[in-house]
Design a protein that fits this description.
single chain; mainly alpha
């Protein structure tokens, strides 16, 4: 399908709903332009790194001081899961920063989204911005949307979407192949992309090289391997492949991408005043979300 035809189908399939001006004005109060905030994003990054450091510290303490069989392996597996989840949290920080809604100050926004989060999980700010902000959001549900392309290839979007395909995809998320596919997706659209800015690529490469060199020079290369590289290629990839299907409050974000994530709940309550929006949110909770993902109207 050509890009032009895809875009025409997108326009006809996703006609933009017109919210009342008073609701839009009320929602606009929660953007960082009108409600300045330079601490929520910073606190989120601090929380992620605190949990990562605490997890690694506890695991190392158990490894060096508690010599009962299986205690450290069990602890280490748990810590891998925790660190992988917080690496995903850092990816969320990069996501918010590319929308310019992680901090009101543009320099702090970029710093938090790159040196404190995006770069250490090997992702490019520019690459993320192009694939997500420039292609995913304006072309949602078309062939120009890289996220939609991946979901369509797995038979959970588009004409091949069936309940059986969705269930098969959900089962596949527990296999190593799902994590590998997600890694390939990250490499193509977030880590090493054709849209990378050369200057940023150099800065990112130098920054990562300095970090690795510091660990090696200080004799802590094993720490880097155990508590960053291994969690990144295991738990982080699995969580990423799973959570892509059910990000929290996705409709609020796609309707108003300039709203910071800590204001989603406030904005959702405002949107519930709109009858059309409210009609889409009669059932809440993760169980109902999973049911809606799996259930497919075969007549469509």
């Amino acid at each position: 399908m050509s890009s032009e035809l895809s875009l025409r189908n997108y326009v006809s399939a996703f006609k933009r709903h017109k919210f009342d001006k008073s609701l839009r004005n009320e929602i606009a109060k929660y953007t960082l332009t009108n409600k300045r905030d330079n601490y929520h994003g910073l606190l989120a990054i601090i929380a992620d790194w605190t949990i990562i450091i605490m997890g690694a510290t506890i695991s190392q303490y158990v490894r060096n001081n508690i010599h009962l069989p299986f205690i450290w392996p069990i602890t280490y597996v748990l810590v891998i899961c925790i660190i992988g989840a917080r690496q995903r949290g850092l990816a969320r920080g990069l996501h918010e920063a590319t929308h310019n809604c992680f901090a009101s100050n543009k320099y702090l926004n970029f710093f938090l989204g790159t040196f404190c989060s995006g770069y250490v999980i090997f992702q490019s700010f520019r690459g993320y911005q192009i694939s997500h902000v420039k292609n995913h959001h304006p072309y949602l549900g078309t062939d120009r949307d890289p996220d939609y392309q991946g979901l369509k290839e797995n038979g959970i979007c588009g004409i091949d979407r069936t309940s059986e395909n969705v269930k098969r995809y959900l089962r596949s998320l527990f296999l190593p192949s799902a994590s590998f596919k997600y890694l390939l997706y990250l490499i193509k659209y977030r880590i090493w992309t054709k849209d990378d800015d050369d200057g940023e690529t150099i800065v990112r490469g130098v920054y990562l090289t300095m970090i690795v060199a510091a660990f090696i020079y200080s004799g802590n290369a094993l720490i880097l391997l155990l508590y960053w590289i291994i969690p990144y290629f295991t738990a982080h990839m699995w969580i990423g492949s799973f959570i892509e299907l059910m990000e929290h409050y996705p409709l609020v974000h796609h309707l108003f991408p300039k709203i910071p994530e800590w204001e989603y709940d406030n904005v959702r309550h405002i949107l519930m005043k709109d009858e059309t929006y409210a009609s889409l949110h009669r059932r809440l909770g993760w169980k109902n979300l999973m049911k809606e993902i799996i259930d497919v109207d075969e007549k469509q």
